[in-house]
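Listing S7. Sequence submitted for prediction.
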Amino acid sequence: MKFASLVLLTSLTATTAFAPPRALSTTTALHSTLQSPPQRTAPAAGHIPEWENRPGLSPEEFMASDLSKPDLGGMWECPLTRWNSEDIDVREAQRMAKQVPGCPLEIRASEKDNAMGARYFAENREMIRSKLLEHGAIWFRGFELMKSVKGNREMHEALGLDPCLDPLHSSGLRKFASERDALYEEVNKPSLRQHYIGLHNESTAKRTAAYAAFVCFQRATEGGGRFLVADGAAILAELDTKVLEKLYNRKIRISVSNLDIPPALPGVVKEGIRGLVDVAVAPKFDMDLEMIYESDGKPGRLQAVETAESPINRHPVTGMPVWFNNAHNHARKLRDRRPCGVPEVGMTEVFYADTMEPLDLEDCMEIKR
């Protein structure tokens, strides 16, 4: 998850924002891959908070919107990503990152806090936004207000956060839970119930939300349901310096989609398909994409690849360098080792930008570590 921009994590009493009571070790066999199949294992976490089992509301209650409030459906587009990644001294950046306070900061509601409702957030707005800047994320626990759609909206309105569209809104991959309340549903397909969702702070190389608020209204009914939080400053500080310098100097490119066509097709036909995909499919993603054949070595595979980007970016307010990319989620060598129901067309890969070679396994495993 990218943390170069500020993140607000909200949790309600029905579920933990990070994890169920203990880590699940779901494993499945890998059915198809370009290499010998590794074992699929759900990602673990360095710290798993205790499950508190507080009661929540029924779906009818937590999904109810306050119809007296205006419809927020006409939101602004997600802002453009602010890139400031040139001339970063990697070793100095790691030294700076080690000084950053832990993430996330946990704020627990007292009886007095809950009695105040949305007024708690209005009266503590400056403190909360200051702590966000300092820690990168806040986990609100035990707040009765955010146990429903309408309460969650009251919270972010009290903090003065202006909603915007998801950066992938135009792709059709994002569904609203309540459009009039500017609330997206993150996972809505049974096929993704075991998939590791890399939220990366709702960012792409082109667009990034300045803040994001995540909320869970009920516990996962069939296991899983863990919410993983990665500290971008801590990742930067802890990565092997040589690997980090290698990735920063070479930059990365990410493929976001695959289209497999018969490799024996004539070149003129392949070029026609490339042009058709570029015109018909690429505009659905508000991203700068290049259509490239066989980047990952698979004959006949056409991949939509993002432009080169730095794995490190400076925070737009503090100037602090942080880990700012999706390799932890998009690298094929990592995805092939996790439970995943995503079809091949939606599988991703990460390349070294200078050679368009996929990240090697050693670098992927260091990122995972």
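Caption to Listing S7: primary sequence and predicted structure tokens for the chain studied. The CA atoms of residues 250 and 355 lie 9 Å apart. Residues 1-34 have pLDDT under 50 and may be disordered.
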